[in-house]
Amino acid sequence: MQNLDCINRLINCFTKLPGVGYKTAERYAYKIVEEDGAFTKDFCDALLSVKANVKFCRRCGNFSVADECNICAKRGGDVVCIVRDPRDVIAIEKSGAFNGTYHVLHGVISPLDKKGPDDINLKSLLVRIRDEKITELIIATNPDVEGEATANYIAALVKPSGVRVTRLAQGLAIGTNLEYADQVTLSRALMNRVEI
Amino acid sequence: MQNLDCINRLINCFTKLPGVGYKTAERYAYKIVEEDGAFTKDFCDALLSVKANVKFCRRCGNFSVADECNICAKRGGDVVCIVRDPRDVIAIEKSGAFNGTYHVLHGVISPLDKKGPDDINLKSLLVRIRDEKITELIIATNPDVEGEATANYIAALVKPSGVRVTRLAQGLAIGTNLEYADQVTLSRALMNRVEI
After folding, report:
1. Do A27 and B34 touch (CB under 8 A)?
2. Closest residue, chain B, to A33 (C-alpha)
3. What are phi and psi of B13, to 5 degrees?
């Protein structure tokens, strides 16, 4: 309608964020127009500061401000938990149930998205298995098709080196209602039932 | 978990966008970390350029790069359509069914959000009614509680000056299924039925 190219450019930038469509990007952009200049300045500073300071841990691939993330720096241990992305590290850390180190894949094997084993952070995992005395890999990818396929691939890849490979348990989530659990979850829960 | 203050600061910025909660902001921030520097630079440029170039039309309150938006600059006419925000201008322009000028309120009267008549762009509307030869105001606020209240307020305010005040028709949306229409919409559609 109007020669508001700069707004369209900002809308275009916002659509590149995950899960943001055109309408949502439009709302965000209009919010920026309506907010005062201090907010925008702060926003830019925050963006640039993240880009300037945050890198990936050279050992596990997690976000870090130093060469090694502070999980790798503080913890040793022979158990490594493999996750898809840094958010999963935070989720597991919040549970407090794991005190080993992580390995972040930055993706999963997904032929539909043209992502093969070479496109995820696997090579450095093999290096770690060789150099560190790792005895167990806990594969904590999501329990979906891609996550399962990636888990199986890693298991097959690593088994020959004698490392124990485990997978997070699958079953009923705490607090769910049996009535509303899906069939696959229920059949897994039955299959993996434990003695009490 | 880690001294990643800059990420937290960016997450905090993202949560200020409309409809963005902590988890969503986290996803956006991690996307920024994972993208290359060019994207972030482009993003910042777009943000700053919007802030530097886009202002409000001094006549109608719509977004504009000049003193007057190009709708006000191109069109005259005595019919003014009153909308809540600039996105509504775009929506009505897309319909192609209106060729008068607009007046953007930048909000609606909403006591729950502590927004009274003085907090929306009403004063300049009264000035326009006095200075321009306006014969009709079409109130196109949303058909919800706040929108209706604002419409009624403006109607009461403007009626003494002899200007005709109308409201967008309320009834069944095109393509909807009668079966799934809500009760209020159906009763409005019945009430406002038209001869064929």
Report:
1. no
2. B51
3. -65, -45
**Per-residue pLDDT tens over the stretch B63-118:** 888 888 889 998 887 899 999 988 899 899 989 999 999 999 999 999 998 999 99
Is the CB of B19 less than 8 angstroms away from the CB of A24?
A: yes
Chain B: closest CA distance from residue A33 (Å)? 6
Q: Are residues A86 and B26, on separate chains, in Cβ contact within 8 Å?
A: no
Task: Kindly report the pTM of this predicted structure.
Answer: 0.75
Residue B64 and residue B62: Cα distance in Å, rounded? 6
Strands lying side by side in the sheet with B164-167: B101-104, B79-83, B136-139, B164-167
Q: How far is A75 from chain B (nearest CA, A)?
A: 13
What is the Cα–Cα distance from A36 to A189, expressed in whole angstroms? Answer: 53
Selecting from 3.40.1710.10, 3.40.1360.10, 3.20.20.190, 1.25.40.20, what CATH number does the domain B75-167 have? 3.40.1360.10
Chain A residues inside the 8 Å CB shell of B87? 26-27, 30
Cβ contacts of B50 on chain A, cutoff 8 Å: 6-7, 9-10, 29, 32-33, 40
Measured between beta carbons, which residues in chain A are less than 8 angstroms from residue B44? 44, 47-48
For β-strands A55-56 and A136-139, DSSP reports them as unpaired
Q: Is B137 helix (H, G, I), strand (E, B) or coil?
A: strand
Domain with CATH 1.10.8.420 in chain A: 5-53
pLDDT in tens, A108-133: 999 998 999 999 999 999 999 988 88
Q: How much is the average pLDDT of A35-45? A: 90
Region(s) of chain A under CATH 3.40.1360.10: 75-167
Q: Which CATH number fits domain B5-53: 2.40.50.140, 1.10.10.10, 2.40.10.270, 1.10.8.420?
A: 1.10.8.420
CB contact under 8 A, A26 and B87: yes
Q: Report the residue of chain A nearest B64, measured CA to CA.
A: A4
For the segment A85-95, the average pLDDT, to the nearest whole number, is 90
CB contact under 8 A, A50 and B69: no
Helix (H, G, I), strand (E, B) or coil at A31: helix
How many CB atoms are closer than 10 A to CB A88? 19
Chain B positions touching A90 (Cβ under 8 A) are: 1
